[in-house]
Task: structure prediction
Amino acid sequence: MENLLRKHSKALYMAFGIMLFAVLIAALFYATNYANIRIFYTIGNGGTILISDVTENAEIAGETNQTLFAYFNNFSQGINMDTFKMTIFNFQHDLSNFNTLIVWFAIVGIIAFAALLILGNHNRNIYYKSNLIGGIILPIIVAAFAVVMLIQNIGLMNRFVANQSEFNIVSAIMNSETSIEASKITDLDPNVSNKALEFVRSQNSCNSITFIIFEVLFGLVLCYSLFLIFVAVKKYKITEERRNEVIERAVKQND
Result:
């Protein structure tokens, strides 16, 4: 272990930085798989969320929930659209907020990584108290944040899994690439509407893979942060003799 810390300390800390930059880049793609699990809404007086089959600016922006409402009101069983519309809204809202939180998590981690470099934890042959304290506190901050990310991410995943079939239908209806075909569910010709219904129900573009990948990613950051705490404590201990010699020489020179 002593040889590892002496010869590869820089690589150990650089791996931490690379991991955090990877989280930042990955954040750009977090919501991609669930981007069409959405519902159009307007904000009323007092910040009230208003959701109906057609939003107030539908004619201007082409924003309409008509097909979505038509499907869940007429072709689904056991779905109360007055309740389910808020399930969709809350999921898209919380997913977006968590996506932003991932970016902040990565930024905080990168700042902690940069602070470790400033302290010289990656290249100092002898660790002093500043290296020990920084080597413990900074990774602890990242580790604590990672725990929050793990909990919130799995919470979102559980909400997705609980509504996976319905959310896939929402995604098919609200996806601009499939919305035209989906809108035919209200066609007067039964052959056309039945074909559209079959199409909508066959769509399975959304799955849990993104949540799982990020759960692993957050877990890796957590574990590596704890590992760096061990590295700081271990290196502080194994350099004790040389540190004491340096301090003793400094004291003698100042006498």
